[in-house]
Design goal:
The complex is a heterodimer of chains A (about 350) and B (about 120). Chain A is mostly helical. Chain A has 15 helices and no strands. Chain B has helices spanning about 15-20, 30-40, 50-60, 85-115, and strands at about 25-30, 65, 80-85. Chain B has a 3-stranded antiparallel beta sheet. Chain B contains 4 helices and 3 strands; from the N terminus they run αβααββα. Classes of the chains: A mainly alpha (about 350), B mainly alpha (about 120). The interface between A and B is medium-sized, with 37 and 33 residues.
Chain lengths: ~350, ~120
Amino acid sequence: MKRLYALLLYLFPRAYREEYGEELRIVFDLALDDAMASGRFEVAHVALHELSSLPKAIIHEHLRERRKAKMAGRFGAYFDFTHGSSREFLAAFYPFFLLGGVLPIINMISLSGVMRFPNPLFNGIAILLLAILGILCLIGLFKGLPRWSLTYLGFLLAIFSVYQIGGMLDRLWVRAFPSLYERSWFLGQVAYQGILWVGFSVVALLLVLLIAFLPVLRRFKKDWTLLLLLLYGSSPFALLLTFDDYMNEELWELLAFIVLAVGLWMYLHTHNPRRQFWALFGGLTVSLFIAAIGKAIIYQYFWEGTRHFTWLTEMMSTIIMWMWIALGMLIPLLLRLFPQSKDQLQAA
Amino acid sequence: MSTDPISYLPLTEPTFYILLSLAPGKKHGYAIMKDVRELSGERVNLSTSTLYTAIGRLLDQELIERLSDEEQDAGPGLPRKSYALTDLGRRVLEAEHVRLQGMVREARLRLREDGA
């Protein structure tokens, strides 16, 4: 009977099934187990009651699904991805794919000499891919920032932090830090990377503080890992930045981006906040450490002979960058300190 | 969604009992099902699919909320998702309570008049 019920659940719309299917099955099993204690007649009664109400519920949910799609409009509804679906992953992954997949491949083709650059075909493809990025970002904003669109905001946040905030603080760098650099390369690099990524942490902190005042940010309070996902969107840009000016870095870059993709996939496929945290934090950490090792190995091909940089300083600069981003990614944990709602406290 | 509790009234009997079941605190689906049966004196016997159709609608209306996994303490074999009243859900329940009280008061007065 339990197996039959589980099979009948496939008649519900897919989105509904993914949302409630497991719960429906567990509750039915519990109801049947309870009925078993009261005898066969009760089991038959419960089974009949459950099975007879199924057709109405199935029709109701199909109609509701259609109504929802109609209200959102066909185009808009196309971007209502089910949580954990491969379409949601692909949408969230697009900025990663653009920086981590397309760019290294273009680099490889360019270095192989198969095509000459600038090439009108590649220019067209690049414009098309960037236009898709912009359109998806706008759709995400228009649809009230669904989960998949947060990586786009993270990507923009990284650019804002490095170029806008970092650019503003650059004057401070010129005045104050060269002496620090002379004294200790490590401290100088910590300060330099801090200038680049301070905007990242400040925005994360601001979002945490504003959540108490802005109802539009309430969902971050409900699910603190969403803010973490937003910040994770910055990681492709961090990788791009760390390999800036490098040659023959494509394979390391690809490997690091694959790790980021795995982290993202794991985040989207679990509902447990702890696992989600470790998926993203682990993804960022492993990915940037792969980049650091890669830089130490390929360093000799490019920087050999320069005085100020060694394979160690190159590797360390990425680790210091990781330190700053990792620090920013710990900020969403503050959301766990927010008081719970009255109902939750009562229940506790 | 309207934030005026009156706009949700009158509540259907199953909806009223589901919200009432969640008034003391969060519950998972099966606990709601059993509680509704008990609260209604066995009159409202929700099936699993009917319960979750109602839960889906109440979530859309933001009268209840689904709690994240971390906040839940479901035992083995119990659903991992549980539900709680939102502030709006509680206000709707209170408004329905006031409405029902008014109806009972009026009925009582009229029936006394008839009896006198």
